[in-house]
Structure formats: structure tokens, C-alpha cells
């Protein structure tokens, strides 16, 4: 039985020795089960406060979980283009956005979006900004954590921290603040399975505890469809763990940056287009090492290579017709801090 190197950090059994009660006082955020629940309830709150907000703008390069949450609300969905450098189509937004618009801004892979532009757009149009910070929990930008950008902001613990669930919904605009409700639940079966996924034998193909919804958005019969009426709060174990890991952010950041650079040095430029504008330096805490395969054949070659070496590599893209063709070939390589990627690559076949 060999340990798999995964995109998201593995839960450590030893963490159970560090359980402690979180400070009950939460002034400016609420806790939910995951990022998509935070997004749903955040949007719901925005619409309650201002029913005139009817149009939502979403980048074409987006996780299906985001769309699943938005589909549950009565909003007019519009897409704005993202190119192969993860740059936004400013011209389209400048011409389309107004005071009745909500814009989802994604901080991809641990790196800040073009926040200077979005904040200027907000000043001009009085639009509402939501920061999708699921990849970028620990990243700072201009001295502020990315969770402090936007009128509302939401993150995802499990993508960066070795916990079972959890997401913070931040109310950065006091207009949307609501009374906090502190509640937790017993971990679900899938979350308990998630504890043991790093010990999964290679011959087991499924990913323990993961919901296989990459690229499956639109399948209404899927058992992974989003249902906000089910349990939506953080589990009791994660509630007693996440603050410990947040306090240890510098150690997590340093190791992730080191592993990010190891992939950059290892992967051949003949196979990939590197996103040279994404540098893992200073206050950046990368979620993964992202790069674009030059062809479908190269993409499949590296996915096969990852399987042989028990390294989880993900083709992160959706099936939207208007998605940039380069982004369809985006691969994400793991940089989890409990592994030395450079040492792993020395022994790779």
C-alpha cells in the first residue's frame, strides 16, 4: 500500500490530538460546509438586501460547483472571457456591468486576480463584487488577505488545510452582515473516508471521499448535484482544527512555494506553456502548480505518468463551449506541504 500524492492535503490522524474549542465569537464571517454553500448563502443574502441585483457575471473558466450553487437562485447568468494567461475580458465588463450586477472574481490557484481593475470598476458602476477565494485561503495581496476583497468573500478549507470540511463567508460590506449562527454536525461517511484516502492502494481507481463533479455540471440526475437544503454547516472535527492550521500559515506557505518551484524546474518546456506571470513568491500561497499542455496527447501522457507514480494530476477545466481552447488543456500538479516534491521527482519513473 503506497501513499498517494494528492492535490488537496491529506488528513493526519495525529491531528486528532490537537483538537481544541474554537473561540465562539465570530464577528465578520460565518462557517459553512464548503465553498459552494458559502457562495449560495452569500448570494441569497445579497438578493434579500437588494432585490434589484438580478445579473451575475461569472468567468468562463470556473469550477462546476460554483455554477451548481448559482443555479439554485433566480439570477441572469452572464459569462466573461478568461484567456490562457488567466487575464479577464475588461472590455466586455466595462460595456456590460452596471449597479444591478454581481461579479464573481476568482483568485485562481492561489494567486490574486486583477483587483485594482475590479475595485475601480466598482467605483464607476456601483456593482457588487464576490471574491472566490477557494484556491487562495492564505494568500495576501497588498498587505490584505484575499478574503478581505469584495463585498463578500468565501474560501474553502479542505483545498489548503488537512481538515474534512469548512468554508468562511466574509461580510466585507457591512450592508450584508447578518446574525451569526454557530452550529456543527457529525462528520459524514464520505468525510470519514477522506481521512484514509492517502493510504488508498493504487489498484483502487476511485478517489475516497471526493465528489466526482469535475466537468459533470449540467447533469441534473447526478447524485453530486448541489442541494442547499441538506446539512450545510462545518463538521465538528474541522471546527476544532482549522484555526490551529491557520496559525501555522507561514510553514504551509514556505513548503508550498518550495514544491511549486520543484515542478517548474522538473517539467519540460517542450511539453508545457508555463504561466510565467504566476510567481510563487512573497505572500503567495499556491494551491497547485498550473500549466498548459501543448497538445491533448501531451496532456494524456502526463496524466498517465501521474497515475504510474501515484501522483494525482488534474485536468481542471469545464465543458463550456466558450472556454478558451488553451484552458481546456490546463493541468494542475500537487504542491501539498507534507511532501517533498523534489525528492519524489528524483524517484519518479
Q: In sequence order, what are the helices and strands, one letter per element?
A: EHEHEHEHEEEEEHHHHEEHEEH
Strand order of the largest sheet: 1-9-8-5-4-2-3
**Rg of Cα set:** 20 Å
* Helicity level: 25-40%
Structural commentary:
With 349 residues, the protein is of the alpha/beta class. It is built from ten helices and 13 strands. The strands form three sheets. Strands 1-9-8-5-4-2-3 form a seven-stranded mixed sheet, sandwiched between helices. A four-stranded antiparallel sheet has the order 10-11-13-12. Strands 6-7 form a two-stranded antiparallel sheet. Strand 2 (55-59), helix 2 and strand 3 form a beta-alpha-beta unit. The longest helix is centred in the C-terminal third of the chain and has 18 residues, at 249-266. The chain is globular, with a radius of gyration of 20 Å. The two termini are 18 Å apart. The model is unreliable at 208-217 and 219-223 (pLDDT under 50).
In short, what is this structure?
The chain is an alpha/beta fold.
Q: What is the fold's blueprint, element by element?
A:
Blueprint: E1 29-32, H1 35-49, E2 55-59, H2 64-70, E3 76-80, H3 90-96, E4 101-106, H4 115-125, E5 128-133, E6 140-141, E7 144-145, E8 152-155, E9 167-171, H5 189-194, H6 236-239, H7 242-247, H8 249-266, E10 272-274, E11 288-293, H9 296-308, E12 314-315, E13 330-334, H10 341-346
